[in-house]
# Entry
Amino acid sequence: MKFLVPLSMLLALIWNSPVVGLQEQQAQTTPKEDTLQVPNLQTPIKGLLVGGQPEKMDIAKIKALGFDTIITLRPYTEETTAIGYNEEMVVEDLGMTFVRIPIQTEIDLNDRNLALLNQALEAAGGKAFVHCRTGNRVGAMLALRAFKMQRVPFAEAMELGRKAGLNTWTDATEKRLKGEADQ
# Structure
């Protein structure tokens, strides 16, 4: 004996199945940038998320937003005393790429570190989360990268830096862009 199910009933069963419900639930719970507890969170360039130090719980949210690379500009000594967790381990446990470029003082705004940042961003296809404690060092390095490596005019490079968090290192960044600082 054959049992025939009307098409409308079959579609209703499929639509209300747990798989569809799960997909809808996942779509509703995908984090958005405004759910992150990251100080000075900005998107100065499409595909680039920048800001201050993320909380441990934010790293999984950053991954859920589609970012597979996290670049920190904080030196080891600054991180271990300040954030209370091993960021590198958390990032790598999530299957993400972790890059550390230690920028501690304005002297570290140099060509070597700039090349490392450029290399890391290119390896990530331009889609990465870059941070320091507040976003200030990120803004400085992105301004330098724009000016020196991407040949963006001075004023535009500085504006990008400000959008990315450049604040207290503005003078040092301007001097570096103008070639007045020691290399």
